[in-house]
Amino acid sequence: MLGLLGMSATIWVRRPTAAPAGEVSAPTHRLDRPLPGLTIGIREDRAWRSWQHIGDVWAAWLDRDGASPRTVETGGQVGVPGSDDRRRIDELAAAVDAAIVGLGTCGSCTTFTVKDAVAVEAAGKPVVAVVCDEFLVHAQNVARHLGHGDLKILALPYPLEARPAADLDDIAAEYYPRVLALLGVTGSPGTAS
Amino acid sequence: MKFASEAVEVAAAPQEFYERTLAERWSDGAPVLPATDEAVAALLAHSPYPADHVVGVLPPINGVATVELVAVNAALAGVEPASFPYVLAALDAIMEPEWNAFGLTTTTSSVCPMLIVNGPGRAAAAIDHRAGCMGGAAGRGSMTIGRAVALCLRNIGGQRAGETTKTVFGQPARAGFCFGEWEERSPWPSLAVRRGFAATDDVVTVHGGKGTFPLADIHNDRADDLLRLIAKSTAFPLSNMYLGNPENGEVVIAFNPMWAERFGAAFPDIADLQAYLHEWAWQPIEVWPDANAAILRDRGRVDAAGRVALVSGPEQFLPIVCGGLGSLHAIVLPSFGESQSQSKVVVRPA
């Protein structure tokens, strides 16, 4: 198609981009109960020793505060390890009252942290996805594109790896009340130390 | 023909059009061709599926890849209409769950889809499989099919470095990577035939590869010695395969035809060659510092002799034959690990 006199000629082309999915967000859930008597799942990741440390600290504190922690460790994305992990996440979602799912501190592990958290949320349970702040926007994007844009996400400092255990303990203490608040725990738990 | 995708008026002048594609973020930074209705219709004429057929949903943004939208991106890349079914087959492979597109399109790694083409249509489609097949040979099929797939990931899947994908370095192959196997010079059945396809089928295998890792030797004439060194080279200590699950992922090894001839004489059955590669693809645990070694031990990766195998089984080595006749090179395409390569037959209209 030619433009007006004195203007450049134009043509029509087709836009190659697709609209993102997931503009509608699935419902989220809150405990709205105190911790004692609840079963809280923790999803750890075999890749991240720092998160195993923090997860283990939180599990001990959940136990101290009257809840029953239940930890699963994942490490697969495909194949038999991947399908085994997804099955165990589904079992965790069915067995617990709420779950803490981490850790997103790389691209694909953030994706799978969010996917596993979404599986818990889709099962109707309160859940918090735990990521490092470098990966927060990525986690939010993944959650939105999976149709769970309101998924609760807790951002820990980055990087966690290569920090001494004492630093990780401090981070565990600082963020323990925050993760409980995001789950909707009532009362006054979370005096961490 | 009616189109569902949005029509956009753009300047016809090449430089202005290029600037517009950059502003709209339709390209990978290099120039693209206008996806006019004529260009898109020509591609669709070679699709076995209708324009509104959904090929799948492409992560990270889970954009819906209709055949029409794929054709629009193929038009940008300059895909020859008759080669459009290769693009569709590659995307079909990528969307298989075990390829792990959501993980691979968002990872910090450099991994990307690496397309390996088998079948009688390679030459007509100008898919490079001889000298310079992994870059430099300039076959239209290799350059445009791979790029079309990459543009689909970018424009339909929304894969953008630093935004939706956390890749640290990326790699040149993220602009597209497609080559063929030189089946006529292979002493073994082709990769596709080994996967159950007929030799008369055109097949695209998509491997989640982290890069092109070149090997060279001029000092050894024995096939078994040279293969042992190749196996050792695949088992580099910081391979992804030592991070995750050893049973996941494959290592593609591209042999030049001269080496393939030598290896074929020593190992007429490719299963024996794969077993030999597996036998030698390990490193002694002493290679790793204490912290790494402790984790490898904890995960049961160290055998009684103190060896740490790269992968669980011989079938995870995928030897192929391609490239020029310089008898001193091989290239390894290391795996992301958490990805299983997928092969799909190229379907053409009836």
User: What characteristic shape of chain B results from the CA principal axes?
Assistant: globular
Protein chains sharing the most extensive interface: A-B, 40 and 65 residues
Number of helices of chain A: 5
**What structural class do you assign from the helix and strand content of chain A?**
alpha/beta
Give the spatial strand order of the biggest sheet of chain A.
3-2-4-5-6
Summarize the structure.
Chain A is built from five helices and six strands. Chain A is of the alpha/beta class.
Could you name the key traits of this structure?
heterodimer, A: 193 residues, Rossmann fold, five-stranded parallel sheet, 5 helices, 6 strands, B: 350 residues, alpha+beta, 60s Ribosomal Protein L30, Chain: A, 2 domains, four-stranded mixed sheet, 11 helices
Account of the 3D structure:
- The complex is a heterodimer of chains A (about 190) and B (about 350).
- Chain A is about 40% helix and about 20% strand.
- Chain A has about 190 residues and is an alpha/beta fold.
- Chain A has a single domain (about 40-185), classed as Rossmann fold (3-Layer(aba) Sandwich), CATH 3.40.50.
- In chain A, strand 4, helix 3 (about 105-120) and strand 5 (about 125-130) form a beta-alpha-beta unit.
- With about 350 residues, chain B is of the alpha+beta class.
- Chain B folds into 2 domains: about 1-210 and about 340-350, no CATH class; about 210-335, 2-Layer Sandwich (60s Ribosomal Protein L30, Chain: A), CATH 3.30.1330.
- Chain B has helices spanning about 15-25, 35-45, 65-75, 85-95, 100-105, 140-155, 190-195, 225-235, 255-265, 270-280, 290-300, and strands spanning about 5-10, 55-60, 65, 110-120, 180, 205-210, 215, 250-255, 280-285, 305-310, 315-320, 330-335, 340-345.
- Chain B has a 4-stranded mixed β-sheet with strand order 5-4-6-13. A 4-stranded mixed β-sheet of chain B has the order 7-12-8-11.
- In chain B, helix 6 links the parallel strand 4 and strand 5 (about 180).
- Chains A and B meet through strand 1, helix 2, helix 3 and helix 4 of A and strand 1, helix 1, strand 3, helix 3 and helix 5 of B.
